[in-house]
Amino acid sequence: MSSMQLRTLTFAVSMVVAGAGVAQEAGGRTRFILAASWQPAFCQTNQKKAECASQTGERPDATNFSLHGLWPMRQDYCGVSAEQKAADKDGDWNKLPEVTLAAETKTALAKAMPGTQSGLERHEWVKHGTCTKMSADDYFGVGVHLVGALNASAVRDLFAANIGKPVKADAIKAAFDKSFGPGAGDRVKMSCRRAGNVRMISELTIGLSEAAGAASAKSAGLADLIQGAGKTSFGCDEGVVDAAGF
């Protein structure tokens, strides 16, 4: 082999290796979304909802993220009747079937998901949970576990330390990277809503890998599930961390 051929082969191998590195850095594919609400901001524009009328500064959802849902990508209403689907889309969630849960799961869910006071868990199960292979108990158990991990992280600490103040995207992404590994912040999208003249952070939607769709995810590390997801744009670049109360 000539020196020219050797250099060409070496260059080709190096390009393949570099390409593999880029693919690895890009992560996997997002199969599930963990939707975590900042409940005080949600309640600013939903003051009549039961969970908002009853909110206090001492309740967990005043200083922690609340579980909105665990959503399979590009699937909803799996095996659901037309009547249930119509009731759900009309927002008449109390007409949906009651979700049967173990007492322990029900208690944990009521704390993690204040919206259960308005039947949110019925909506989440009919629209999203039916598209997983999990039982309702496992489905909500996974959601409670994952939002608990978020609330045990630097992300929650950042929000709790800045109630009433604006927080920028870069700070939130850095908090995700600190708790869940480099690049975790690239797998998160932030939503904001306006209440009067104030733009408030309302929700974080966090990309997760396919492993989030199994009962075993009740003991999985949130970092691993995030790192197995694909990247996304962050969305809202800055918003106020709202305090409980109107």
Automatic annotation (TrEMBL):
It holds the Pfam family Ribonuclease_T2. Gene3D superfamilies: Ribonuclease T2-like. One of its GO terms (biological process) is RNA catabolic process. InterPro entries: RNase_T2-like, RNase_T2-like_sf, RNase_T2_His_AS_1, RNase_T2_His_AS_2, RNase_T2_prok. It comes from the Bacteria. GO terms for molecular function: ribonuclease T2 activity; RNA binding. Belongs to the RNase T2 family. PANTHER family: RIBONUCLEASE T2. This is Ribonuclease. It comes from Rhizobium sophorae.
